[in-house]
Amino acid sequence: MPEADAEEAAPTADETGPLQDEAMMMEAPEIREAEVAMGFNACCADTAFWLIPLELGWWDDLNITIVPNTPTYHFTSGDEAIAWLRSGEGNVALGWVPGLFGSLETSAQETPPILLADMYVGYAVLVAPDSPSKTVPEFMEEGLAFPEAAQAAVRQLVGADIYISPGSIDQAQYLDAFFAHLDEWWEAYQQDIPSVDGEGNPLVLLDRDGEPLLDEDGNTQPIRITTNDWRNYANPQYVNDSAIVEFSAVPGRIEYAVPFSAPILVQMMRNGWDPLINFGMMIENDPFSQQTAIANSTVGGIGLLANREWVNNNKDLVYRVLSAAYRTFEFLDDPETQHQGWEIEANLINNYRRLSLEPEDIGTIWDQIDPSFSWEDQEALWDLDLPSYHPEIVYATQIERLKVRGVLAGDYETQAGLKEFLLAQDLYYEMKEFEARADALFESASGMDLSAGQVDLIAQAQHHYDIYNFYDALRFLEAALSG
Predict the structure, then answer these.
(1) Mean predicted confidence (pLDDT) in 191-211
(2) pLDDT score of 204 more than 90
(3) What does the pLDDT read at residue 173?
(4) Residues 145, 164: Cα–Cα separation, whole Å
(5) Count of Cβ atoms closer than 10 Å to residue 357 Cβ
């Protein structure tokens, strides 16, 4: 074709721009409109946080409608939530992850965690303001080292009534860590329970450098967890948390209490009840002891549980739901926004439980009692080479304990069962891959001469990326840069 004819036939830039932009916009990926049946118990900070994305309208960004939403479904117990998920009526619900271990051989695999939200380290024995009993810090002020102070404090609990929620029956091991400070605890134990790593190898106590802690003879010390039980030494008085609060307001009515939920714990402390001993004291003052090892190997937290069949059929929705959780944790961690989040949670919990929490109380819970696992924390959570709380290790030890006690069969394959159960780990690494691929495409786009349509798609990708929706961020980037 002659050059003049070619110039005449070729569209001008003004002619191609709008056509290209229109075509590019038409190729924008769809975020399908969907309903997600989600529920939670409004009892506690680590479950009430799900009201924040609802209150702030964040689900609209994901084209998700949460149902039932008049009001959003509130559970009264973990068992209710699990039954709801197993029935197929529910898709996702927040629940206590270790509470499922007893049914790992049967139904627990139907409702695995797709996210581990937090680690509850707030377990404490509270002592009444008018009690003559001394706390661990008070014994230390008198000159005792922590191990001796802890033993003296716990000694006061022997034979005493301890008011505690019935929900603690399946979590007796938390108080076991306190009572293990007694000499007779080790004299009376019946059987050691293996504390193992992700490959089933026995764990030993470690020093601050991560090296094996040696005894006086230069030998490593295996972590010892026994079949002993704190209820052999004290008298549990099972009443719910609301009753504990009522009793605590009457001078002389009760002396020792172990609230089941963080809001109750914080409110009672604000009213003058002091921790006689808690996990924080142990971790801060005696991190390498057998007692602290027991505490570390038994802690757990809330997870976002899901109907496995729903997960398998709706991976796109799963990624979006998880992004809302990570966005919420960032909101609660940001000094510029966290107070708004605390206020939303405090109002919900107060209305639901007839408490009088201040927003700052919610901040105390997240900071000291129920630290959450943000997106940035997840890598250390799952990478055994990084120092952190590792579910693979902690949960394996708890499952071995159930096998010793006959709750699970003695030949149950712990590692295989955990690998199947911890769906949260697989989903994290899938989202991590989306993030990495999106990062690479953002970098590529930064050196390109982009059309207006491409710029618009990349801006949408950036929005989704910023709210931890890496799945759709990648889809928009691929649409923008394809061809």
Answers:
(1) 71
(2) no
(3) 67
(4) 29
(5) 24
Neighbours of 393 (CB within 10 A): 19
CB 41 within 8 A of CB 74: yes
Look at strands 274-278 and 256-258 and give their pairing.
unpaired
More confident residue, 230 or 196: 230
Is this structure's pTM higher than 0.90? no
Distances (CA, A) of 248 to 256, 259, 441: 9, 11, 58
Cis omega before residue 147 (within 30°)? no
Output the average pLDDT for the chain.
87
33: left (phi over 0), alpha (psi -120 to 50) or beta: beta
β-partners of residue 74 are 40
Q: What are the backbone dihedrals phi and psi of residue 466, each rounded to the nearest 5 degrees, phi first?
A: -65, -25
Q: What is the mean pLDDT of residues 242-262?
A: 93
Strand residue runs (E) in 200-284: 225-226, 235-238, 256-258, 274-278
In this structure, are strands 124-127 and 274-278 parallel, antiparallel, or unpaired? antiparallel
Question: Helix, strand, coil % (nearest 5) of the chain?
Answer: 55, 15, 35
pLDDT in tens, 426-469: 999 999 999 999 999 999 999 889 999 999 999 999 999 999 99
Helices 423-445 and 375-382 cross at an angle (nearest 10°) of 130
